[in-house]
Automatic annotation (TrEMBL):
GO terms for molecular function: acyltransferase activity. Pfam families: Acyltransferase (PF01553). The chain crosses the membrane at residues 12-39, 96-118, 124-141. The lineage of its organism: Bacteria, Pseudomonadati, Pseudomonadota, Gammaproteobacteria, Aeromonadales. SMART domains: PlsC (SM00563). It comes from the Bacteria. The keyword Disulfide bond does not apply. This is 1-acyl-sn-glycerol-3-phosphate acyltransferases. SUPFAM superfamilies: Glycerol-3-phosphate (1)-acyltransferase. Keywords: Acyltransferase, Membrane, Transferase, Transmembrane, Transmembrane helix. The keyword Acyltransferase applies. InterPro entries: Plipid/glycerol_acylTrfase. Coiled coil: none annotated. It comes from Succinivibrio dextrinosolvens.
Length: 305
């Protein structure tokens, strides 16, 4: 709608609207967080959880409107239809940009419970956003340098303990756990350094997803597998959105049927751990092929214009 405006002006508009949206949604979430601390009764906690769910839906709607207002986005959505549910879900996805988070929320459109992401510990210090995410129960992971891990090997289990705690909360207060299995955003440089065997992806890390499924497999209603592709915005996609430059967004949604290869004890059963890791790699091979198809489709459409 406003994508015809100069990029610097769109950046200002987006900055203002994003800030207003964050403040409007984060403020009541923070207030509800204080209520949880003062009145930690079960019925109060459930009431706060319901309020947060609707605040989350408003945040999703506002973000979709904001992106549609300042970016001329052409969506290419394929795969399975997204069912509506209030039960616990797991969403795995490749990771291109911070924008993935907004796009996941936009694509699912509030049809699944409030999304929770594994976040780096230092993000908690972002004004409003960090505290709001903490109040919502987002899991924060702390990355330790190798030197510190060598001095204190016990730190290696910290992320596992965090994942277990989050899973217990997911059982009590159903949410959608988002897992970027690659552990970091994809870049050709990172992929080369990691000796990735994929063209478009980093090697998947099975630990956090494996632990989560070990803890809550029976409570999970849907397991979604997302594949995102931004042909013109693979680098700096978030800033491109701020400047109104997002064009084509490809996303495939696959509902993974619950099966024996997903059910087991990742930490204690070595056979299951190996089988699950191989299963995840197989999914990533298919995802890489799908990204090849998306790339070919985009090039074909561009040539036919």
């Amino acid at each position: 709608m406003l994508s015809f405006l100069p990029a610097p002006l769109l950046f200002i508009i987006n900055s203002l609207l994003i800030a207003i949206n964050v403040i409007l949604i984060a403020t009541p979430i923070l207030i509800l967080g204080i209520v949880k601390i003062i009145l930690p009764f079960d019925f109060i906690l459930r009431l706060v959880d319901n309020c947060n769910y609707y605040l989350y839906k408003v945040w999703v709607i506002n973000n979709r409107m904001l992106m549609a207002l300042t970016n001329d986005i052409k969506w290419h959505i394929t795969g399975d239809d997204i069912p509506s549910t209030r039960k616990t879900c797991i969403v795995m996805s490749n990771h291109i940009s911070w924008l993935d988070i907004l796009f996941i929320c936009s694509v699912y459109g509030g049809r699944i419970p409030i999304t929770k992401f594994f976040m780096k510990q230092n993000l908690i210090y972002i004004p409003f956003v960090g505290l709001a995410c903490y109040t919502l129960g987002m899991p924060f992971l702390r990355r330790y340098p190798k030197e510190k891990l060598l001095k204190n090997p016990a730190l290696r289990t910290k992320d596992v303990e965090t994942t277990k705690k989050v899973c217990k909360d997911l059982i009590k207060y159903p949410s959608s756990l988002i897992n970027f299995c690659e552990g970091t955003r994809f870049t050709p440089e990172k992929a080369k350094k990691a000796k990735s065997t994929y063209r478009h992806l980093m090697p998947p890390k099975a630990a956090s997803l494996g632990v989560a499924l070990t803890e809550i497999y029976d409570e999970v209603e849907y397991i979604f597998n997302n594949t995102f592709y931004y042909p013109e915005n693979s680098k700096g996609a978030f800033m491109d959105m701020m400047f109104g430059k997002i064009k084509d967004v490809y996303v495939n949604i696959e509902i993974i049927e619950k099966n024996d290869r997903l059910r087991g004890n990742y930490l204690e059963d070595k056979t299951f751990k190996h089988d699950f890791t191989m299963y995840l790699r197989e999914l990533w091979e298919k995802k890489d092929q799908l990204l090849d198809e998306m790339e070919a489709d985009y090039r074909s459409q561009k040539e036919n214009k």
